[in-house]
């Protein structure tokens, strides 16, 4: 009997660089925030609002990365590398087209959107001045997403890490120079962002050019990618509805509650990056196995990566249970916020093993191209589990306990759905394309 286990070293070799790419952007945002923060409250508020608008738009387009990985990995597993890279070419064309559209629409709608969120005042004006410059980086951000997607599909996660670090590293140096020395203030931060995005995108363009594949657009392939993207966009919108609702209810509960929710949610997001890197490795390996016709290997690996996710989740839960009395004080000294944090903290700790399994199996199903199922499961989990509990917590005054109970219901429903799906035969369709 052959051993169909994937070596743990191979999984880690894909996951670790992927984690670096995932973490690079939040780390750069911290640097950017620290630089702009010394200009005063108004520029910082403008950066915060403009950054939220830019990030929310980009977050809906991650199919350029995750969807491309799924299609590319199958072709790579089937031994059709040139066609796998051609998927990256088409994703890059899509990125350029959508990115240019975002630049045009963003220039038109940045002012009304900023006023909608912040009112007609100085904060909205500052956000617009930053956003209108930062939007010129949108095509390059999307090209980088597409580049990450096809490179992960051919199981190369090391080069994307270098490319992203080179861009962000240059920008981290350039940001204080433009903001302070050149005297460009908040706008200097936006220009530094665009420089980082251009540098990374050029490196991904170069990686495509040396692959010796046709660089012309193929509308049929782009339509297929958009079909996959539709499901991932709807899934992403479900996440956004949940987390925006949670923040809104926390804000209506009390100042201390929204502060505590922000602290715990940011930790949740940070740990999600760790677990999502494991999902990226799963996506690449499962897609390649199914593309090679190795259905048994793909199914066995699905449970192997589930065990890894469970172990990582348990370890994270233990660590954050141990630092419950210490870590929150790193983020705030406000007595009211510290008193509220335990109402969310223990949900956050208990959910780590569940999150480890859910994220791992999300990666498995994404690698299999089973996006229609993931879309439906996520939407139902949000509508049945998260949203009713979150808004009931506002109506009945349950506060953070109600909000995080809603998140727990959301995660448990997702856990049940992905476990049942993985046990079924429906996801493990072999072949170079699904």
UniProtKB/TrEMBL annotation:
GO cellular component, one term: plasma membrane
Cellular compartment(s): Cell membrane
Pfam families: MatE
InterPro entries for this protein: DinF-like, MATE_fam, MdtK-like
Domain of life: Bacteria
GO molecular function: antiporter activity; xenobiotic transmembrane transporter activity
Membrane-topology descriptor: Multi-pass membrane protein
Transmembrane regions listed in the UniProt entry: 47-67, 88-110, 130-151, 163-184, 190-208, 232-255, 267-293, 305-324, 344-365, 372-391, 397-416
Keywords: Cell membrane, Membrane, Transmembrane, Transmembrane helix, Transport
Similarity annotation: Belongs to the multi antimicrobial extrusion (MATE) (TC 2.A.66.1) family.
Identification of the protein by name: Putative MATE family efflux protein
